[in-house]
Amino acid sequence: MKELLYIDRFEQAEALFKPQRVEVLRQLAQPRSCTEIGAALDQTPQRVYYHVKKLLAAELVTQVSERKVRGIHEGIYQASAQSYWLSPRLVGTIGVRKARDELSLGYLLNLLEDVQSDLVELDQRADELPTLGISGEIHLPAGNRQEFLDDLRGTLQDLFRRHGGATGDRFRLAVACYPKEHDHE
């Protein structure tokens, strides 16, 4: 099972956009038969098989083995990946995205799409890659926002200067900073 499957064909997206198929797909995190899935979802094996066939045709599920039960060959299926990402290019950008500068939402959306594309390429090339993910939350009074953004930009520019040589392994660093709604406790 792959870690990530990037859905960039309409046929794949269409096969995925049925709530019952998503439930079947979730059941296929581990190899299972249509009979086993049907019992878990309170559906007939035939109904489950109908959805599994659609998922198979879209390459979202694979048949991993087969067994004989009471003289009938029963397929064992598994999801093709642990995560399924829809390509933003399925629809594409409608109109011109306003990416005026690094502080605009359009710039951030373009950056996220680039990072998503890069991750898909990485997933197809190697099993284990030297990656780093960091996430955190900062609480800023309104008057300190610009100072924080200036500090962040300066720190990153210094990092790029110190480690941005022309030789060695090439890495991409993408930093996103955006307001977050307060959690209701």
Automatic annotation (TrEMBL):
InterPro entries named among the record's database cross-references: ArsR-like_HTH, WH-like_DNA-bd_sf, WH_DNA-bd_sf
Pfam families with a match to the protein in the record: HTH_20 (PF12840)
Top-level taxonomic group: Bacteria
CDD domains in the record: HTH_ARSR
Gene3D superfamilies documented for this protein: Winged helix-like DNA-binding domain superfamily/Winged helix DNA-binding domain
Protein name: Helix-turn-helix protein
